[in-house]
Specification:
single chain, binds beta-D-ribofuranose, binds calcium ion, two-stranded antiparallel ribbon, 12 helices, 11 strands
Length: 317
């Protein structure tokens, strides 16, 4: 049986790995890709989504979404991590199949009503499109089956600031709307994604596969890997977004705790995810109706990487 997924993304190199995984997984049916600003401006991230469907030989529609955070102007885009084109400076020609589809949040709303309690969202960029869905139609939270979010951090500190993870930092007001909603949420934050490394030898293995995807993933990742080498002396890269996609298909690779997630909108701590674990006694309990969500605390990293390599070998085109 296939599970319906809308893939919300800001491609982005690690987004590409995650999207290729979801598109080729035999039990996942991606019914649409929605794009958001984040790693690059919205026009580039949308172009990139079209490049990725072409390269993965998929026949999925792309829906362009938010160009900026809900309430703030855009910040600086991290071209030094993902390249000027968001795909490691491969400078791919502008795809020809770009369509004028409906706006991303309208697409999500439409499909949620068409398939009530069947739609799962994997969100690996800023949460602006999802917040727009909730703002436009607050009742929708009852019929969206789940959201798996790559974002936030519990005990791992931040990556874009000392305390904040980039996707949440990029639109903290949107993230707060989503975490406050009644949608069943799984948060895959830096506590686990900083434990999953894709090494140079994994990338070499991908490139050796008898498909075009592996070679393409190698091509786009060399810029990303160089960034990790130069800034962190790592021989490979964090596998943020793919870890979230794999948490969706294989939650048994993770240990989750339940908690309420709050997002700081303050200047210094902007985007920090503050978590009240349900099992813990807090001297200052938080008086708030929001639901406890699943927060990934531990991960079996090897299993995550092996699952990706297995899907790449068996199913990627
Ligand atoms: C997240 O931020 C983006 O740069 C990555 O694509 C990932 O979604 C990691 O913090
Ligand atoms: Ca991303």
């Amino acid at each position: 049986m296939s599970i319906k997924v809308i893939f919300d993304t800001d491609p982005g190199i690690d987004d590409a790995f995650a999207l290729f995984y979801a598109l080729s997984h035999p039990e996942v049916e991606v019914i649409g890709i929605t794009t958001v600003f984040g790693n690059v401006p919205i026009d580039i991230s949308t172009n990139n989504a079209y490049i990725l469907i072409e390269k993965s030989e998929s026949n999925i529609q792309v829906f362009k979404g938010a160009s900026k955070p809900l309430l703030r102007p855009n910040g600086n885009f991290p071209y030094f991590i993902h390249g000027d084109d968001g795909l490691g400076n491969i400078n791919h020609a502008r795809p020809e199949n770009i369509k004028d589809n409906i706006e991303a949040s309208d697409f999500i709303i439409d499909r949620a009503y068409r398939y009530p309690r069947e739609i799962n969202i994997i969100a690996v960029g800023p949460l602006t499109n999802i917040a727009n869905v909730i703002n436009k139609d607050p009742k929708i939270v009852e019929i969206i089956k789940s959201i798996t979010i790559m974002g936030g951090s519990w005990f791992a500190g931040g990556n874009i600031s000392p305390v904040a993870e980039a996707n949440i930092y990029n639109d903290p007001e949107a993230a707060e709307i989503v975490f406050k909603s009644k949608i069943p949420i799984t948060m895959i934050g830096l506590d686990v994604t900083h434990k999953v490394f894709l090494t140079a030898s994994h990338i070499k293995y991908l490139a050796s596969l008898k498909n075009n995807s592996g070679k393409f993933l190698q091509d786009i990742s060399s810029f990303y890997v160089k960034f990790y080498k130069e800034t962190k002396n790592m021989n490979g890269c964090y596998f943020h977004d793919a870890t979230a996609a794999i948490a969706f298909t294989n939650p048994e690779f993770f240990i989750f705790k339940k908690g309420k997630v709050f997002v700081s909108q303050d200047r210094l701590t902007r985007g920090q995810t503050v978590i009240f674990e349900s099992e813990k006694f807090h001297e200052t309990p938080i008086d708030d109706e929001r639901k406890n969500i699943n927060i990934a605390k531990k991960v079996q990293s090897k299993k995550v990487i092996n699952k990706f390599l297995e899907i790449a070998e068996k199913y990627m085109k």
